User: Fold these one by one.
Assistant:
Number 1:
Amino acid sequence: MKFIIQDNKEQIAYTAADLVEDAVRQHPTGILGLATGSSPVGTYKELIRRHRKEGLDFSRITTINLDEYVGLDEFHEQSYRHFMNHNLFDHLNINKKNTYVPRGDALNPEEEARHYEELIRRLEPARIQVLGIGVNGHIGFNEPAEDFTVPTHVVTLTRDTIESNARFFDSPMDVPKQAITMGVGGILRAQRILLIATGEGKQQAVKALEDGRILPSNPSTILKVHPDVIVLCDRAAAALLDERTVRQAE
Ligand code: GLP
């Protein structure tokens, strides 16, 4: 796992966009694994800028997202499909038919999870998987649990996650209680993983990535088994890291 520490969100967005751009240029018909949340928003803005100003071409790219709230359709402003359209896809020359997000409005979420897993297996591995991290260490919506769940599945969100995501809804009551998420198997399948973490709230989660143990109570620690993970964080999120890690990461 490689840590990169940067001074501000602009630098983070720029570095992350460089890594995504590399994947797009090297594999113009490849798969990108994408994430929602505030962490990748700057990266998406920078990718849109590069598309507009520098002709970065997404016309043959396919994307696959991590997760979606159960019960929200694509028109709901807090659905992850809406987020992706609004923050990225609507501004690129990407064919929306080649952008995949689980269907939150599926009548049978379990069946939707199975279909999504089949889709992941059918596609070639993502060249790069962009990831955020929850304050409790969740990746996608793989919540702290007794075991890791490998395939795409329906998950009941933890109180921590509902509280933390309530900022996007009118009240915590409005946050869906369940989500469909790619499991850790789908995430680890990517050739490279780029995890973006900013702000004080992510300190513990980032520290756990540096420490040795892999525990399902902190799902992001499974990333330690992957050979190519880049953790891109700001100084606030990196504050608890060992001095040696920080020196190497600067
Ligand atoms: C949500 C998403 C995660 C995301 C996390 C962190 O719970 N399911 O994929 O990483 O939020 O969000 P943020 O980047 O806004 O801190």
Number 2:
Amino acid sequence: MPANLFIVEDEMPIVTLLKYNLEKEGHKVNFANNGEEALLAIQQKNPDLILLDWMLPDISGIEICKTLRKNNLLKDIPIIMLTAKGEEEDKLKGFQTGADDYVTKPFSQKELLARVTALLKRSRPSVTADTIHFEDLKVDRVEKRVFRSEKEVMLGPTEFKIIDFLISNPKRVYSREQLLTNIWGENIYVEERTIDVHIRRLRKAINIEGKKDLIRTVRSAGYSLDG
Ligand code: CA
């Protein structure tokens, strides 16, 4: 159940360790070392879960939490607060500002991973599910097979990744850039029109005869899975 995670933390050794352990679990991990950078990156990446440090050099974790909860597009992202030992009062405030869970530093990596998994399962069932449906489309993530109206559809590996990604957040429009980052990864050079080629293939494969087009092209914005 790979998810896109985001770490906001100014202590680099903690970031490095977390990133290492979360990536080992198959997650994609991005991070920021200060609040301002974090808010920008979170808007751009729309992660599945945020690990948010309480004490940051510029904006506090609480402020970030509040800002996210006020943003219609980002308010549902689950947040785990990382607090220092003894900040009991802060924990309380953290919950009031909308954090979903908290972990006290120093924390065990094992415990944190368990919290991440539990929270993802609770809040993002579409990200963690083995099988996922949208209309008459079914994606089996374990066997990596796709069905439309119970008929198997044959897809290449990239087309599979695209549909697997789009079905995690149906109706959400993703720009070509967001698709590139999420499917090919960062720092990999792929031309944007390559996306169009793969989308065309995907569309042709899943829009079997007589069935409606489930891929929506939004002019100058990108693509979404929509019925
Ligand atoms: Ca800190």
